[in-house]
Amino acid sequence: MYTMENHNSVLGIREYALNQGAAAFAVDIKEAVDQDGASRSSVNSVKVSQHPVQRRNEAEVLEGELTGDAYNLFAYPSECNFSGVRFSLDLVNIVKQNAEKILKGSPYSKGRWMVLIDAAKGCATQPPDLSIYPVDFVAISFYKLFGYPTGLGALIIRNDAAKLLKKTYFSGGTVAASIADIDFVRRRDGVEEHFEDGTISFLSIASIRHGFKIFNTLTTSAMCRHIMSLAMFLKKKLLAFRHENGESVCTLYDNTSLKVSSHDSGSIVSLNLKRPDGSWFGYREVEKLASLSGIQLRTGCFCNPGACAKYLGLSHSDLLSNLEAGHVCWDDNDVINGKPTGAVRVSFGYMSTYEDAKKFIDFIRSSFVSIPSEFKKGYLLRAKSNPYPTEGIENRLSSSGCYLKSITIYPIKSCAGFSVQSWPLSSAGLKYDREWLLKSWTGEILTQKKVPEMSLISTFIDLNQQILSVESPCCEGKLQIKVDSDSYLCGKEEFYLHSQRLQHNGYFSIIRYEVRCYENEIDQWFSNAVGQPCSLVRCCHSQYCSTLSNNGSMGMCRDVDSRVNFANEAPFLLISEESVSDLNNRLCSNTQKHSVGAPAYVNPMRFRPNLVISGGEPYAEDGWRNLKIGNTYFTSLGGCNRCQMINFYHQTGQVKKTSEPLATLASYRRVKGKILFGILLRYDPGNRAGLDTNSWLTVGEEVHSNSE
């Protein structure tokens, strides 16, 4: 028997019981409390609601089950790691002495009840006094107590309970003697010698004494009062937040949200946030934005599926349909069918301060209370485009007052590019743009997100000589590769990539690439440049072969005639010089307010655009549906979702990272969890036929647009 609020580490014990033919079931426990909030701690004050019984072998009756001599186990946490709700330690005696009464005659109430307390979360502020409460097993975590070392805990076992435990496996240190070629083994007598297999982590264990030294200095009662006051302070502030329309911002998950009485709440605050229209902010969005502000949060279900479903109101059908939709633990599917699949958790410890809580409160206020008014200027920010007619676009275009300021080509994906005055176009975009990429020997595509040093690799293509030149501060000499010759190519291979852009019908494209490989000498050059073994490949053919939805089902693909190189989402990325200037003004203002040490100014090239325009209003490009540059027609696919990659910058030949400009962009350019800056373009489908091998883009050409 176990409470719904249990960690997966406890639920996993259920497998042993079910596999051996025993029964298992979950329970909800409600405790009545006095007016002052204290538990009455009596059998009459506890109400147990039993969930359906689970059993895998109905025909088998275990020894002692009918006579009531069987051993039963009740497992519950001293503090729920999802909600922070604490359970009374008096449950130990109530279950041991009055199981039949609280289970109301259930056939499973008989027998000798033993109790396991999962104190991994609650031990820091409410350690069970084992001289008062006869708990049989207590699991604790030194990591959750002290923050170090990870992966180390302890199981405390009452001596008479230890005699019941049986163990099959043995290893070094757990046997007194064994003989290799016959069935003989004599196990050690001591329970700790019997169960501690192999060499224990003695170096980590030695560090624990420092944690206990801190605890003994501060005292548990003082830490408990401090942590609870922080949690209550944060809860009151969060519940007071309202949007401009009066709607509540924050939903808390604790004992008050379920109207279930409990002793008190512990060290955590679990919550979700709502928009003014009542829809939910995804917990992953909250986590990512908090990280930009230097705040570390845990999000999801926290490996506590019972509490998660209970507090979020998720039924079995909800959970199964979420799984069918592709949602699994640790993914980014934070809102499905309008319901959150997890929550945001703030955890306080003895080292936490009111300044920490205040920083989180300020973060919520600035990032989630109301909607920034900058989006109401008349421009339509779109995370993706909508279907529209393509005929007669040229008749709807008008001068935008903008001109093409610069053109940049990035031959090798995630490496530095080069700017030109004019450049030819191909069916895949700018000629040679992202036509090459680097792959690790395990097949992983290398990008700046994982290998920031790739930004230090410079590239240039000489169209007259048809040579790609590559340089790196980690390599001597310049590498030159002929782009019109097969002399460097040593074979072909195929691989598949998922497009990162969601189609209009809710599907992601799967693209099949046919690539050419290069000889070892070139691969070795790039391996030295990035500091890990890799190989250079060149796209020679690509094809949209199928599409997948979020739940993995197949679907028809759009725009199947387009040839794409290794661009993430679209052939072209366009940004406005005026938009960058507006961003820099905001960065400068933020730097003056907070005295941030990183550079306040960002160059347009920080965003890796292909096209930079100048001459219009800031963010006017957000509302464009179609545009024409020179004689070439384009369609906007909507805003470009920015990531941490734009936070990398160069200083004294090294790649460094800051929280800007992404943190500032998040404060005013966020739409449904995406931080948009710049727009993605493709050739206009209705005018693709007009694109020939002689088409070029040239700096200075006028930009015509429409915003229908």
TrEMBL record:
Residue spans crossing the bilayer: none
Keywords: Molybdenum cofactor biosynthesis
Keyword Flavoprotein attached: no
Residues of the signal peptide: none
Domain of life: Eukaryota
Annotated MOSC domain residues: 537-706
Gene Ontology biological-process entries: Mo-molybdopterin cofactor biosynthetic process; monocarboxylic acid metabolic process
GO molecular function, one term: catalytic activity
PANTHER family referenced in this protein's UniProt entry, alphabetically: MOLYBDENUM COFACTOR SULFURASE, MOLYBDOPTERIN COFACTOR SULFURASE MOSC
The protein, known as: Molybdenum cofactor sulfurase-like isoform X9
Record organism: Durio zibethinus
